[in-house]
Write a structure and sequence with these properties.
Chain lengths: ~290, ~350
C-alpha cells in the first residue's frame, strides 16, 4: 500500500510542528504478518518510527492497532516479517528485551495490579534488587513518593506509596501508568488509547505531555479512537484498516477536515487514494464496491 | 525522566484528607488487624474456659510439636495461593518424600542423607506439579487433585503398603535437629519459626514474592510487564513440595515410624490456616503473618475444645464456626479501613 503515499503537491499544512524526517529509524517493521487461530490480524505491515517523531496510529476497532503495538513490545511474536531497532534486526523479541531496547508502553488496559501498592505497580517486572533477589523496598518507596509528588501531581495526603491502586481515580491510574513508562529512560513510548476515561482537563494535560516526549528527543506512537487528539500531537499519521496499512502521510499535508474525509473513505473502502482529490461523502458511497474484502 | 521539565500527566482529583498516624496505621495494617483480633479473642476464650490447661506450659509444648506439621506447609502454600494457584497434593508429597528418606537411609545408614533425599523428592514432586500446570496449561486445582492420588499411589506401591520402623534413627544428631527438644523446646517449632521468617522474606522482600503478588492479582498485567510467570509459579510449587517433605519427616520421626498414609489428615488444617489468615482465595492478596496466626489458631482448636469440657464430637462444628467468624472479621475490617 505504500505506493499510495505519493505526495500531493500543495496540500494545506496543518498547525503545529511539521514532520521530522529523521535519518535514524528507531524502529522499523517490514512485511509483518500475524494471525490468531486462522484469523489474519496483520497483513504485510510496514511501519517505522524515527527518533523524536510522534506517529499517530489510527484505525477502527479490529484494525490491528493493538496487535501491532504488542508485537513492538514483545508480547506477541510476528508470524512473518522483520523487526529492526536502530537498524538492527531483533528476533524473538520478549517483553523484557523490548524494555531493554527502550520500549515503554502505556497499555489501553493500563496493566496495573489493582490490589497492590503503588510502588509495586511502578516497579513490576523490574524490582530494584540485589544479586540474591532481595528487594530494596525502601528505595522503591522513596522513588515512588518522589514520582507521585513531582511527576504525577498527586498532592493528596491520603495517597502514599503503600496505597493500593483500587483507591485511585481513572485519571490517577493513567498518570501512574504513564509515569511508570517514563521513569525507566524510555526511548520510545507507546500510548494505547491513553485518553480513554479521562476528563477534558486531564486529556489536555496528557496531550501536552506527549509534546514533551518529542521535546526531549524521544519518540512515541500515539493510538487513539479520537483523531482530534491524534491530529493535535502527531507528526505523521498511519492508518490501519483490516490489518493493512491503508495510509501513511505527514500530518501537515492535510487539514483536520480533510483527515476526517480520509478516515471516512478508508472506513468504507479500505483504501486511501492519495492521488485523486479528496472524496466527498457522496463519492465515497460510489467507491464501496472497490473496497478490500477482509 | 526525573527532569523537572516533564509536563505532568493528569493530576490527582482526590480531595485533601488529613493523614493522621492512626489513619495511615489502620490503612496499612487493616489486613493484619482482623486476624490478630480473632486470634486474641480465641485465646482469651480458651483461657477463660480452660484456665488449667491454657494457663500452663504443657499444652504449648504439645502444640509446638503438632502445629508445625501443617504450619510449615501452610507458609509455602500461602505463596502458591497468593499467586492464584492451589496445591492439594502436599499430603501425598509428605508420604512420597518419606519413601526417599527410607530408601536412602536404609541403603547408607546415614540419616542426614535420608533427609536430603526426602527434600529432593519433595522438590521433584513440586516440579512435576508446576510443569504439568504451566507447560500443559491446566488448572492447578485439577492437576493437584490428580497428583494427590498419583503420589499417594506411588508411595503405597513403592513400599508395598507396609509401614517402616525408624527406631534406629533415635539419637542421631540429624534427627535431633529436626525433632529434638533442646532446653525442652520442640525443634519442630523452631523450624516453623524459621520457615515463617523465610516465607515472609520471600513474599515481601524478594523478587519472587513481588512477582507472586502481581501474577495472582492480574495475570494479564504480569504478562504485559514481562514478569516470568511460568518460572515463578513452578518455583512456588517446588517450595511447597520441599516443605511438605520436611513436614512428613517431622511427623514420621516424631513417632519413629513411617506409615505410607502419613499426612493424610493435614490437607484441611493447612488450607484453613491460610484462609483464616486472610489470604484471598482469588489470589493477589495474603500475608505470612496471617497464616502464622491462622496456624496457631487451627492447631489450638481441637485441644481447646476438649479442654473446655466439650466432647470431641463438637470439634468439627466449632472448627467451622471459628473459621467463618475469623474470615468475616477480616473481611469487614478490610472493607472498613482499606480503600
Amino acid at each position: 500500500m505504500t505506493e499510495q503515499r505519493a505526495a500531493i503537491g500543495d496540500a494545506p499544512a496543518g498547525e503545529g510542528s511539521g514532520p521530522r524526517q529523521s535519518e535514524t529509524r528507531q524502529l522499523e517493521m517490514k512485511g509483518v504478518y500475524k494471525s490468531f487461530g486462522g484469523v489474519r490480524v496483520l497483513q504485510d505491515v510496514d511501519f517505522h518510527l524515527g527518533a523524536g517523531e510522534v506517529v499517530g496510529l489510527l484505525g477502527d476497532n479490529g484494525a490491528g492497532k493493538s496487535t501491532l503495538i504488542k508485537i513492538i513490545t514483545g508480547y506477541h511474536q510476528p508470524d512473518e516479517g522483520q523487526l529492526l531497532f536502530n537498524g538492527v534486526e531483533v528476533n524473538d523479541l520478549t517483553v523484557p528485551r523490548a524494555r531493554e531496547l527502550g520500549v515503554e508502553t502505556v497499555y489501553q488496559e493500563r496493566a496495573l495490579a489493582e490490589q497492590q501498592p503503588l510502588w509495586r505497580n511502578i516497579f513490576v517486572g523490574r524490582y530494584i534488587s540485589n544479586r540474591l533477589g532481595i528487594m530494596d523496598v525502601g528505595e522503591m518507596r522513596r522513588i515512588t513518593e518522589q514520582l507521585m509528588t513531582e511527576e504525577m501531581g498527586f498532592t493528596s495526603a491520603v495517597l502514599t506509596p503503600d496505597t493500593t491502586v483500587t483507591g485511585l481515580s481513572g485519571g490517577e491510574r493513567q498518570g501512574l501508568a504513564i509515569v511508570r513508562a517514563l521513569h525507566f529512560e524510555a526511548e520510545m513510548i507507546i500510548l494505547d488509547e491513553p485518553t480513554m476515561g479521562l476528563s477534558l482537563k486531564e486529556t489536555e494535560k496528557l496531550l501536552k505531555f506527549v509534546d514533551g516526549i518529542r521535546a526531549k528527543g524521544k519518540s512515541a506512537i500515539f493510538i487513539d479512537h479520537n483523531f482530534f487528539h491524534v491530529y493535535s500531537v502527531a507528526d505523521r499519521i498511519v492508518v490501519l484498516d483490516r490489518g493493512k496499512v491503508a495510509a501513511d502521510f505527514p500530518k501537515s499535508r492535510y487539514s483536520l477536515n480533510e483527515l476526517m474525509d480520509i478516515m471516512r473513505e478508508i472506513a468504507s473502502t479500505g483504501l486511501f487514494e492519495a492521488d485523486r482529490s479528496l472524496a466527498t461523502p457522496g463519492e465515497v458511497d460510489a467507491n464501496v464496491m472497490h473496497g478490500v474484502q477482509s | 525522566m526525573t527532569a523537572a521539565t516533564t509536563p505532568q500527566p493528569p493530576p490527582s482529583t482526590k480531595e485533601q484528607a488529613p493523614r493522621t498516624p492512626l489513619a495511615v496505621f489502620t490503612t496499612k495494617w487493616a489486613g493484619q488487624m482482623g486476624i490478630t483480633f480473632a486470634f486474641i479473642l480465641l485465646w482469651v476464650a480458651f483461657l477463660v474456659l480452660a484456665p488449667d490447661t491454657f494457663g500452663g506450659d504443657r499444652i504449648y509444648k504439645s502444640f509446638g510439636q503438632t502445629m508445625p506439621q501443617f504450619g510449615i506447609i501452610a507458609m509455602m502454600l500461602t505463596m502458591v495461593i497468593v499467586a492464584g494457584d492451589i496445591d492439594l497434593s502436599f499430603p501425598s508429597v509428605m508420604g512420597l518424600g518419606m519413601v526417599g528418606f527410607v530408601w536412602v537411609w536404609d541403603a547408607t545408614d546415614i540419616v542426614l542423607l535420608g533427609i536430603l533425599a526426602a527434600i529432593g523428592v519433595g522438590a521433584a514432586a513440586g516440579l512435576f506439579n508446576g510443569l504439568v500446570i504451566t507447560v500443559v496449561g491446566l488448572p492447578s486445582l485439577v492437576v493437584t487433585i490428580g497428583t494427590q492420588f498419583l503420589f499417594r499411589g506411588l508411595t503405597l506401591v513403592l513400599v508395598g503398603g507396609s509401614s517402616f520402623a525408624l527406631a534406629t534413627t533415635r539419637g542421631d544428631p540429624a534427627r535431633e535437629v529436626l525433632v529434638g527438644k533442646p532446653f525442652d523446646i520442640p525443634m519442630e517449632f523452631v523450624w516453623f519459626l524459621g520457615i515463617t521468617i523465610l516465607a515472609w522474606v520471600l513474599l515481601n522482600r524478594h523478587r519472587l514474592g513481588g512477582n507472586t503478588y502481581v501474577i495472582g492479582d492480574n495475570a494479564q498485567t504480569a504478562r504485559l510487564m514481562g514478569v516470568p510467570i511460568r518460572r515463578t509459579r513452578i518455583m512456588l510449587f517446588v517450595l511447597t513440595g520441599m516443605a511438605a517433605a520436611l513436614a512428613g519427616m517431622m511427623l514420621s520421626l516424631q513417632v519413629v515410624n513411617f506409615y505410607p498414609n502419613v499426612g493424610s489428615g493435614l490437607l484441611l488444617p493447612a488450607l484453613a490456616a491460610v484462609f483464616v489468615g486472610g489470604t484471598s482465595v482469588f489470589g493477589g492478596r495474603g500475608s505470612v503473618y496471617g497464616t502464622f496466626l491462622g496456624a496457631l489458631m487451627i492447631g489450638a482448636i481441637p485441644a481447646g475444645i476438649v479442654a473446655s469440657g466439650l466432647t470431641d464430637f463438637w470439634t468439627q462444628a466449632i472448627y467451622g464456626a471459628i473459621i467463618l467468624i475469623a474470615i468475616s472479621i477480616h473481611a469487614v475490617l478490610q472493607r472498613r479501613f482499606q480503600h
